[in-house]
Amino acid sequence: SARGVSPLLLRARPSAAVACLKIFKFSRHQSTCKWQSREKEQRRKRKKRGALSVQMALPATTPRAAARCPIAACAPTPPVTAGGRPRELPFALLAERGMMVGGHRGMGMNAVGAPPGARVGAARERENTLLSFGRAAEHAAVAFVEFDVQVTKDGCPVIFHDDFILTQKTEVLYEMRVTDLLLEEFLSYGVQKEPHKVSKPLLRRMEDGRVLTWSTEEDDYLCTLQEVFEHVSPHLGFNIELKFDDNIIYPSVNLNRALQAVLQVVFQYAGNRPLFFSTFQPDAARITRELQSVYPVLFLTEGGTAKHDDTRRNSLDNAIHVCQEYDLHGVVSEVRGVLKNPSAILKAQESNLAILTYGQLNNVREAVYVQYLMGVNGVIVDLVEEISNAVADFSKPDLGQSTFSNSVDIGRKHESFSQQQLGFLLRLIPELIQQPH
């Protein structure tokens, strides 16, 4: 591709490759995007084509669930200014600091069976808990935490990644779908908030099919979306991933019911917190965008590193097309998809879209730096402290120490990596992006 970086160039001329990557570093001032102008244009488009108008219906709730997760008896209304107009919360609120760093499920994911000393998957804190989110909030360089939201059978949004909860009783393994549980049942797993309650053990299935006890150095109880809003610092941004099972074809009514439950909690408790939604489910992204115009909606994609029956999910280019078609605000791609297709960043810029990435390569400082040069807006990482500190260094004023000062003008920034280190990474990238996740 004329706009891409040739693998041959990556192997043979690392310094020239860095210069080429600089082409894709678009202006941070421009990349924050003119969201208010974009919003006006999107409203015009939706009005022209007769955008879907959805009446917010209440999910069924039990009195006990309502006490833990109150849901308003009317449609949520966006926050308003003193003048009575909807208050815009543009994505730029998060993007102001340049490249954003987001904590993956808080301070990082848990991988059961991870060997001692493993860099990824061995977070001390239980993922997707108030403890993990609170620890991430202590790092000033962390812009947001990413977490997974599902809706229980009685209509309460809860924080949990896996589609199924696994437990064991009298040596018998039980596996329950999260969305088939009542709120009280969901909260009964793992460590309990009230000491007198007996907890049910949590297990987790590994990629090879084995089921192991899900233990962490520092445990915390499972929580609801409402509790996260109430107990996590309001200065920490939220990336709310709307979680749906890849193996289920959802009728629109089911998507609407779950999304309405989430939005009702968001509008009631978000306040001034910067947040955005993301999802792998393209129809859920579309409906979320149609249900509200206050918070940005981004489309999650594996960027071509996995194949799905729904072709909208099968490439970074397709993801950008989904954003254009559904008036979304950006893409969150598996990092290898971006490294394979760097010209997509320019395409996203031309469409006024943000580009964020996730994946294990985001725990390699040099790989994150290459994305910084390419103009990626944000990275979701497991090694939160290490990578957030590294990204903070990227934008420090040049103290005369830059190893690139004689070869590449990088905007008078201080870089903490030698040309030899980056050259090695650039030669390695073609091999890295071909490896299975």
UniProtKB/TrEMBL annotation:
Reactions mediated catalytically: a sn-glycero-3-phosphodiester + H2O = an alcohol + sn-glycerol 3-phosphate + H(+)
Catalytic EC class: hydrolase
Record's keyword terms, sorted: Glycerol metabolism, Hydrolase
Domain GP-PDE, chain residue ranges per copy: 99-391
Annotated GO MF terms: glycerophosphodiester phosphodiesterase activity
Superkingdom of this protein's organism: Eukaryota
EC number(s) per entry: 3.1.4.46
Signal peptide: none
GO biological process annotation, one example: glycerophospholipid catabolic process
Similarity remark: Belongs to the glycerophosphoryl diester phosphodiesterase family.
Protein name: glycerophosphodiester phosphodiesterase
Organism of provenance: Aegilops tauschii subsp. strangulata
Source species taxonomy: Eukaryota, Viridiplantae, Streptophyta, Embryophyta, Tracheophyta
